[in-house]
């Protein structure tokens, strides 16, 4: 079976997204799958909201309020390098 390959230049332009759901009560949940790539406009996902306490820092909703599906740029949690030690220590 052949895997579908994406051109490298196109792959660099794409952003990975993860889905979020918002209920009528405003409760937000994150769906771990699917994580998908998109290089097109996020229309109709134009309502940006900051996320606190989630792996991603923001989500784009299709609707400003109420139950909705949102897309958040996937935060691949990269280990941060330790701060360099001052010279002489």
Mean pLDDT equals: 76
What does the overall shape look like? globular
Work out the helix count. 1
Query: What is the string of helix and strand elements?
Result: HEEEEE
The portion of residues assigned to helices is under 10%
* Contiguous runs where pLDDT drops below 50 for at least 5 residues: 78-83
Give the amount of beta strand, in percent. Answer: 35-45%
Distance between the termini: 55 Å
Structural class: mainly beta
Q: How does this model look, in words?
A:
The structure is a single chain. With 89 residues, the chain is mainly beta. The chain has a domain at 12-73. The protein is 7% helix and 37% strand. It has one helix at residues 8-13; strands at residues 15-22, 28-38, 47-50, 58-61, 68-73. The chain is globular and about 60 Å long.
How would you concisely characterize the structure shown here?
With 89 residues, this protein is mainly beta. It has one helix and five strands, in the order H-E-E-E-E-E. The protein has one helix spanning 8-13; strands spanning 15-22, 28-38, 47-50, 58-61, 68-73.
What features would you highlight for this structure?
89 residues; mainly beta; 1 helix; 5 strands; 7% helix
Secondary-structure topology with pairs:
Layout: H1 8-13, E1 15-22, E2 28-38, E3 47-50, E4 58-61, E5 68-73
Antiparallel strand pairs: 1-2, 1-5, 3-4, 4-5
């Amino acid at each position: 079976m052949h895997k579908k390959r994406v051109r490298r230049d196109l792959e660099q332009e794409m952003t990975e997204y993860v889905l979020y759901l918002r209920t009528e009560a405003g409760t937000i949940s994150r769906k771990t799958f699917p994580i998908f790539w998109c290089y097109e406009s996020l229309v109709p996902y134009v309502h940006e909201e900051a996320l606190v306490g989630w792996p991603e820092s923001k989500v784009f909703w299709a609707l400003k309020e109420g139950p909705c599906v949102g897309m958040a740029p996937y935060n691949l949690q990269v280990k941060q390098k330790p701060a360099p030690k001052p010279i002489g220590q």
